[in-house]
């Protein structure tokens, strides 16, 4: 996946809830899904974390955090009033310089964001998708920073094991190998920690490349069958599914689109076995005692029955 973070629902209806709209799945596939040959797409797990991106900053590979430019209070009020009028969004006029909250100078728009007169154009939700580099001294992104080490140029990555797809693997991956990819940061202090990673005393945060965790035993793309799969199968204890189509289109289905709760008990990912397979001692510099890379290095070679069973030394 690149940094566009754009996906479409496989079939949706917008249902008013007060002054807002709730996205729900319809029982028919959208024209976009049909054109994209959804039946031959690769289904992967939609993870519940926060989106990240790896790209060059200050001349070397850096992790970037998702930061969308959003309208200020007055512009947001004007936009929501316009939405309720049900007129075409093309009729709404934005002034990006005046209508939007400021962002750091290092902020960049995501790939795929439209531009007009050299200014990024807001999407249908009134946001401009983008990124900001994760720097070690920025407390706002301290959990992002815990999953990377710029001195070593590596990231803490969770993905399926190369030799055993049933097994997950935690390893240190060179950031240069992740350039121009998007990933999901999951862990103790992200999105309520649905995967049970770490603890308040010893938090764990990991990066998962988008599209790297296949969904197993998915039913045919049928509303009732999919809903039953989410409700009754062990593999269906996921936040959602992302279909990667041959033409590059990404199609997304979230449990909430089917009126289902999330999380609902133990998640499928949290119950999967995991191996820790990297050696931090090969890097020729000292690390801090509370460094997450050093902590995982002490667990190198170990295997855990469930990913939520990993406990760090305190």
TrEMBL record:
<dbReference type="GO" id="GO:0042245">
    <property type="term" value="P:RNA repair"/>
</dbReference>
<dbReference type="Pfam" id="PF17720">
    <property type="entry name" value="RLIG1"/>
</dbReference>
<dbReference type="GO" id="GO:0000302">
    <property type="term" value="P:response to reactive oxygen species"/>
</dbReference>
<keyword id="KW-0067">ATP-binding</keyword>
<dbReference type="GO" id="GO:0005524">
    <property type="term" value="F:ATP binding"/>
</dbReference>
<keyword id="KW-0692">RNA repair</keyword>
<dbReference type="GO" id="GO:0003972">
    <property type="term" value="F:RNA ligase (ATP) activity"/>
</dbReference>
<keyword id="KW-0547">Nucleotide-binding</keyword>
<dbReference type="InterPro" id="IPR041211">
    <property type="entry name" value="RLIG1"/>
</dbReference>
<protein>
    <recommendedName>
        <fullName>RNA ligase 1</fullName>
        <ecNumber>6.5.1.3</ecNumber>
    </recommendedName>
</protein>
<comment type="function">
    <text>Functions as an RNA ligase, in vitro. The ligation reaction entails three nucleotidyl transfer steps. In the first step, the RNA ligase reacts with ATP in the absence of nucleic acid to form a covalent ligase-AMP intermediate and release pyrophosphate. In step 2, the ligase-AMP binds to the nucleic acid and transfers the adenylate to the 5'-PO4 terminus to form an adenylylated intermediate. In step 3, the RNA ligase directs the attack of the 3'-OH on the 5'-phosphoanhydride linkage, resulting in a repaired 3'-5' phosphodiester and release of AMP.</text>
</comment>
<keyword id="KW-0436">Ligase</keyword>
């Amino acid at each position: 996946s690149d940094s566009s973070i754009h996906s479409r629902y496989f079939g949706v209806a917008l249902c008013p809830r007060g002054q807002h709209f709730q996205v729900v799945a319809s029982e028919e596939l959208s024209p976009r899904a049909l054109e994209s040959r959804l039946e031959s797409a690769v289904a992967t797990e939609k993870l519940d974390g926060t989106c990240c991106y790896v790209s060059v900053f200050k001349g070397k590979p850096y992790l970037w955090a998702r930061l969308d430019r959003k309208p200020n209070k007055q512009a947001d009020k004007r936009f929501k009033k316009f939405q309720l009028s049900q007129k075409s969004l093309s009729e709404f006029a934005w002034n990006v310089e005046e209508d939007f909250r400021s962002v750091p100078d290092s902020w960049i728009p995501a790939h795929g964001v439209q531009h007009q007169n050299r200014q990024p154009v807001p999407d249908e939700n009134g946001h401009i998708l983008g990124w900001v580099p994760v720097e070690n001294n920025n407390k706002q992104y301290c959990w992002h920073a815990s999953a990377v080490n710029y001195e070593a140029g590596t990231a803490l990555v969770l993905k399926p094991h190369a030799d055993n797809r049933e097994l997950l693997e935690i390893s240190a991956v060179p950031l240069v190998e992740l350039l121009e990819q998007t990933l999901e940061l999951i862990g103790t202090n992200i999105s309520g920690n649905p995967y049970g990673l770490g603890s308040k005393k010893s938090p764990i945060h990991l990066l998962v490349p988008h599209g790297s965790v296949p969904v197993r035993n998915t039913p045919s793309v049928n509303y009732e069958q999919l809903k039953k799969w989410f409700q009754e199968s062990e593999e269906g204890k996921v936040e959602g599914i992302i279909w990667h189509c041959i033409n590059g289109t990404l199609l997304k289905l979230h449990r909430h689109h089917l009126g289902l709760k999330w999380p609902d008990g133990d998640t499928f990912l949290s119950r999967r076995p995991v191996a820790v397979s990297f050696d931090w001692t090969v890097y020729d510099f000292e690390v801090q005692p509370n460094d997450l890379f050093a902590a995982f290095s002490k667990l190198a070679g170990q295997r855990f029955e469930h990913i939520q069973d990993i406990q760090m030394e305190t």
